[in-house]
Fold this protein.
Amino acid sequence: MTHVVLESCIRCKYTDCVDVCPVDCFREGPNFLTIDPDECIDCAVCIPECPVNAIVPEEDVPGDQQHMIKLNLDLAKQWPSITKRKTPPPDADEWKDRTGKLRELIK
């Protein structure tokens, strides 16, 4: 089993999770992170590090977020690995409590 990054990461892109990952399974896109399911070892150390609760075990992905499982898989194949924490976007705090952010993924 793997972990999945949910929509709540979109436009926040805090990277606290990246620092604790022992296998470097995170991938970075323009305004979102994904987890490469082929690399994730299900250690769960990233979960408490995410300030927006955007990381969950695949079996706990809510029904309205099931599309994020495939999205993580597909985007992880395209995006480069991220192995060190970066400064979040300047407006990350403004976005962290918003819902329905999937349409923001392509901006």
User: Anything to note?
Assistant: The two ends are 30 Å apart (CA to CA). The chain has one domain: 3-85. The beta strands are 3-5, 26-28, 33-35, 55-57.
